[in-house]
Design a protein that fits this description.
Elements: E1 2-4, E2 11-13, H1 14-32, H2 50-54, H3 58-71
Antiparallel strand pairs: 1-2
Length: about 70
């Protein structure tokens, strides 16, 4: 998929558009000093979530985290 913004010579792929939007959102989020949920840095396959998911209510907490994170998007 390609997006045309200005003229036929300036086409952005959907990946370029996604990166630009994400960069813009991150810049704004960091500048706002608003507290956003932290994103875990270890993959689930590497045990990044196993301690949380093994706890009672862990899967519910994970769903709550994603709901909170996505609700904070503009």
């Amino acid at each position: 998929m390609q997006w045309r913004f200005w003229n036929s010579d300036e086409r952005l792929t959907s990946a370029e558009v996604a990166r630009a939007l994400h960069s813009q959102w991150l810049t704004k989020a960091l500048a706002s000093r608003r507290e956003y949920p932290r994103i875990p840095i270890r993959r689930a396959a590497e045990g990044g979530f196993s301690k949380m998911l093994d706890r009672p209510g862990g899967p519910d907490r994970a769903r709550q985290w994603w709901d909170t994170a996505l609700d904070r998007l503009e």
